[in-house]
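Open question from group meeting: does this chain pack into something compact, or does most of it stay loose? Before anyone orders reagents, we agreed to write out a predicted structure and look at it together. Recording both the input and the output here so the notebook holds the full record.
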Amino acid sequence: MERIICLIIGYIFGNVFQAGYWFGRFHHIDIRNYGSGNAGTTNVTRTLGKKAGIITYLIDTFKAVFAALLVHFTVGRGSENEMLLFLYSGFGVVLGHNFPFYLKFKGGKGIAATSGVVLSLFLFPKHCWILTILGILTFGGVTIISKYVSLGSLVFVSTFFIEMVIYGTLGWLPLSGMALYEAYGIVFVLAALAFVRHRANIKRLLSGTERRIGAKNTEQA
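Structure tokens returned:
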């Protein structure tokens, strides 16, 4: 039951706080009708500028953190599987962000929300904070070097899963038994979902037509 509650909490946060969509409405447009047709940070940045993109990213990231904090103060505090409950709420946030029911399930791609899930792990002791730092370095490094946000995003979610497995194997996560394997499963699904949502980007990366950082959206979707 706790897992379901956390999933619902996350979905509500991810669903309601659609930063890209509402920022577009503030500018009297539906961001999903422009550029890539996506309601996420990259499309907002290319369509409305860097300031709008930064605000969108921060909101989409921290809604996962705030969902985790709500879980902590309700069902998570004192639970030996609190990290697992954080991951369930984070998974809910990504689902709500990607598939908001009031926008006909057409939202973003979930990378900013996933980065918020990773950021929430900073709240745990031992070596968990390193996962957050590694996530920042991985996404930032790959994106800066390649100039492709999509590539940085996909490498980020892939390495997050690998790092979780390594940490779990070394006993560095506050999880054990089936709870640990549940955590692996959630992170794997998050990574797989990111790849599914980026399938058009992957095709463009392979064909060499993916837009690099700095490219502007000049057409409507």
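Observations to bring back to the group:
The mean pLDDT is 91.
Residues 83 and 174 are 7 Å apart (CA to CA).
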